[in-house]
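#help-structures

NK: newbie question. if I give both the sequence and a SMILES, will the prediction place the ligand too? trying with zinc ion
OV: yes, paste both and it writes out the complex. here, I ran yours:
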Amino acid sequence: MNRSQRNSISESQPHKASAGSGNDDFQRFRDRLESVTEGTHPLVDIENGTKESYQQHQYEENRLTWSEVEGNCAIMPVNNLAFVDVDEPDEVPDVIRALPETLRVDSPHGGYHLYFRCNGELENSKFDWGEVRVDTWYVMAPGSVIDHDGYCGDDCSHSGESRYELSQDREPARITPEQLPDPTASETAQSVQQEEVEFDSVDVDFHIKSRIEKAKNAKHGEQFTALWEGRYRDAGYSDRSTAEADLLCRLAFWLEKDEKAMACAMDIACSEHPRTDGMSPRKWLERDGVYRETSLKSATATVDNEYSGSTSGTYRPTVSKLTKDAVFEALMDLKAATSTEIAEHDATDRSKRQIQNALKEYDEQDVIDWTKDGRQVYYYIADCEEFIPDGQRAELGL
Ligand SMILES: [Zn+2]
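OV: that's the protein plus ligand as C-alpha cells.
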C-alpha cells in the first residue's frame, strides 16, 4: 500500500471509528435539523462512549455547529425544538402515543427521543416514563455510541458498544404546548421548578436538616455550602458530575451513609437550588433512578468514615494512600496516560472512579499535571515532561 492509499483510508475511516458524527444516521439527522437550528450553535461536544458533556454547554459559545462536531455529540432544544425523551416505552401515556409521527431516535437502552417544534411557554418536566426537554436539557444525537461496559458499568444489562439510531427519518412535526403532557395534572410527574420535598419524609434516627446545618458550619463548611447550593465553581469544580459526586460523599459522611436520607437531602438541595452556577440543571434532577442509585452506592462505598455525634465531625476526603501510590506507580511507568490507561495498568487494581479521585487529589496538590489532546486528557507527573518519549511529547504539545 502506498502512502496516498493509506492516507485515503485513514481519512475515510478516521481514528474515531466509534464516533457519531461520521455516521450515516447523523448525516440524515443533520439534513432534517440543520435549517431548524439555523443561527445557533446547537450541538454539545460529548465524551466518546458516554453521555457526558465536556463543557458548560448551557453557554452557546461552548457549543458547536454542525460542521464542527466530531464523535459523540448531543443536541440542545434551540429555536423552539422540544424533545420528548422516553425512557420507559411501556409506560408512556396516551397523550404521548397521540403525538404526530415525527423524527425519532432510538437509544441504546431501549428508549427513544421524539423531536418536535413547539412554540409557547414550556418548561422541562419529568414523568415516570421519561421527560419533556425544552430548556438546556440535551439529548444524544444519532450515531453517538455508548460503551456499556466502561460508561454504564454495572447499571446496565448490555455489553459492548451500541449506537443511538435514527429510527424515523422525518421532518420534526409541529405541535402546540397543549399536546404535551401537563406536569401538574399527574401525581407522579414533577415540574422541575415546582418540586417540593419535606426534610422529615425519611425515617432515620437523626434530623436531616440539623445535620445539614452542622455540615454547613463544620470545618469544610464553606465548600459544603457551595456544593449544596449548586455553586460548583465556587467549590472548585468545572463539571457538575464530579461536583455532585463530591456532594454525595459529604452527605454520606454527615448522614451516616443512610442512602434514603442522602437521597432526601439531594432532593432538598436540588429543589432549593435547581440549577448550578453554570445554569445547568442539577444532574440529580436530570437523571433517572439508576443514576441516582449508583451514585448513592458509589458515595457510601467511597467514604470510609462517618459522622458520629461524639467526634468533632470532620469530613475527611477519602482516596486511600494505597490507591494514590498505585496511580503514581502507574504514571511513573506510563509517563503520560489517560485515566483509562492508568486504570488498566497492572499497578492499579482499582475502579476507574477511585483512579479519578486519586488523580483529582494529585492535581490539587500539584503532584501531577495534565494536557488535553483532542478529546482525551493525558496525565503526567508534574515537571517530568522530559521523561515522556519524544514522539508522544510532541503529539501532546509539551
Ligand atoms: Zn448501557
